[in-house]
Amino acid sequence: MSITFNGIGSGLDIDSIVQAIVEAERAPAQNRLDRLETDTTEELSAVGQLSSALSDFMTVVEDLGDEDLYRGRSVSIGDRELLDATVDESAQTGSYQLQIEQVATSHKIATQAVAAGSSTIGTGTLTLHMGNSSFDVVIDEENDTLAGIRDAINNDPSNIGVRASIINDDTGARLVITGDETGLENTVAITVEDDDGNSRDTGGLSALTFDPNDINSVGDGGVTHDAKELATPQDALLYIDGLTVTSASNNVENVIDGVNLNILSAQSEEDYANGNTINLTITNDQAAISDTVNNFIDVYNSFMSVVDQLTVVVVNEGSTGNLTGALTGDSTARNLVSTIRTQLSTGVEENPDGMQFLVNLGITTNDEGQLTLDSAKLDKALANNFDDIGALFTGENGFAKRMETALEGYTGAGNILELRQDRLQNTLNDVDTRREKLDERISLVEARLYSQYQAADSLIGSLNNTLSYLTSIGTINNDDD
User: Fold this and answer.
1) What pTM value is reported for the model?
2) Is 67 helix (H, G, I), strand (E, B) or coil?
3) pLDDT (tens digit per residue) in 135-152
């Protein structure tokens, strides 16, 4: 590897000279690329902001055009401590008067007492029944205590929906069985196949028998031993406009079309005896529409704020000139806003007079181009012209569909904004390529300049040496004279 010392022959600062020439060569092209990159990046960011704001706007337009919004129902209940309810779009508006005489309850029993939870009971097979279903639990020497039996029941994978626990009362430990399901049809029973050969006595595993109705038709009329019924099963009993309804569950579905009732508690005896009722009223879900309209206005105003920021002109009287947004004077932004505003002022001719335009709902544009809402006017329209509001926003001629069609060139596949972003990104990619080529060209210029200056330096060094030699000869000759 050779080491080059530039400027030794000539005394010139070749490095500084070459770098100055190189920078002078690079600067104009570099500045053009920097300006192009800055302008393109700003424009790309602005178009992205515009596209994102438009997407948010179209989302809320779609919400307004959703026909399910105008089928929604809401429910009010006179006493939500006693009753809850949900409704779907199939429910008809109207009012109902309800009375609740009793709630549905599950069956709960306690078998006869033994000394303790650790007491050995016996072996065999327990069959636990709930309504028409049952499952078997095998009890052997590994789990023949009261606690072991409890765990075997609860952990059995075929358990049909009963829970076992132990309560210690004054007489001893009792196995408590609770049914998960409510209603008369879900009564609980226990039958036993005892390994001691007698499945109905009080000794061994059969001590846990609770079979008041002789489920297996043994013929003894039923066996409960000293078991206790802690809670009797019962159906819910209620009256809707005087009509009797019984249900095994406290969740009463579709007794009223489209309405699911959840009974929480029975009325007091006094209220029931006095004929007091619980009012249940189904109405159109006006609140959901009002919320969507308000959200539409908020999103529209946010969209217009973004447009204003991107297209703003701030007059500056100083020497720096006016300040402008990245899309100031841009025809795409201008045409987009014009298209949207046209649809805002277009009506639905099929609607009755007074319900054809957004202004009929209290939606107007202020001097700053922002939408405002007269809530009282909207509430009045919701109360008096509910169906017409749906027709104003939905359907082929409704606001949402018209807006979607009008803006398809800005939102559909291969839309104007998307193609523009692609073009701007390609420009940025091209800037990178042009920078690389500029670097390559400048490297060649730099190498050429060094080569030229090094050659000149060498020549000047040689000439200087010759001059020094000639000068020294002349000096010698003069001395000789």
Assistant:
1) 0.70
2) helix
3) 999 999 999 999 999 999
Strands (E), 197-347: 228-231, 236-240, 243-247, 251-256, 259-263, 278-284, 313-314, 323-324
Buried b (16+ CB within 10 A) or exposed e, 122-151: bbbbbbbbbbeebbebebeeebbbbbbbbe
Q: Which two tokens stand for residue 91?
A: 């429910």
Provide DSSP, 317-355: -STT--EE-TTTT-HHHHHHHHHHHHHHT---TTSPTTS
pLDDT, mean of residues 246-254: 96
Alpha helix locations (H) across 65-159? 146-155
Q: Is 28 exposed, middle or buried (0-12, 13-18, 19+ CB in 10 A)?
A: exposed
Contact 143, 128 (CB under 8 A): no
**Burial (Cβ within 10 Å: 0-12, 13-18, ≥19) of residue 356:** middle
Average pLDDT over residues 124-132: 97
What is the rounded distance in angstroms from the CA atom of residue 188 to the CA atom of residue 209? 11
Give the list of residues 6+ apart from residue 188 with CB closer than 8 angstroms, or none: 107, 108, 109, 128, 129, 130, 162, 177, 178, 179, 210, 233
Q: Which of 72-76, 195-199, 318-322 has the lowest mean pLDDT?
A: 318-322
Residue 219 buriedness (CB in 10 A; 0-12 / 13-18 / 19+): exposed
* Nearest partner of 416 among 329, 317, 334, judged by Cα: 334
Neighbours of 383 (CB within 10 A): 11
Ordered strands of the 278-284 beta sheet: 73-77, 278-284, 94-102, 236-240, 243-247
**Token pair for residue 114?**
């033994």
Residue labelled with tokens 């009974």: 263
Domains in the chain: boundaries: 1-72+285-461, 75-98+244-283, 106-231
Q: What is the DSSP letter of 11?
A: -
Three-state DSSP at 233 gives coil
Lowest mean pLDDT among 308-317, 348-357, 386-395: 308-317
Q: How close are the terminal C-alpha atoms of the chain, in Å?
A: 50
As beta bridge partners, residue 137 has 126
Closest among 322, 421, 370 to 49, alpha carbons compared: 421
462 bridge partner residues: none
Q: What is the overall mean pLDDT for the chain?
A: 90
Question: Could you tell me what percent of the chain has a pLDDT over 70?
Answer: 92
Residue recorded with tokens 């297996």:
216
Q: What is the CB neighbour count within 10 angstroms for residue 465?
A: 11
CA pair distance 338, 340, nearest whole angstrom: 6
Q: Which CATH class is domain 106-231?
A: mainly beta
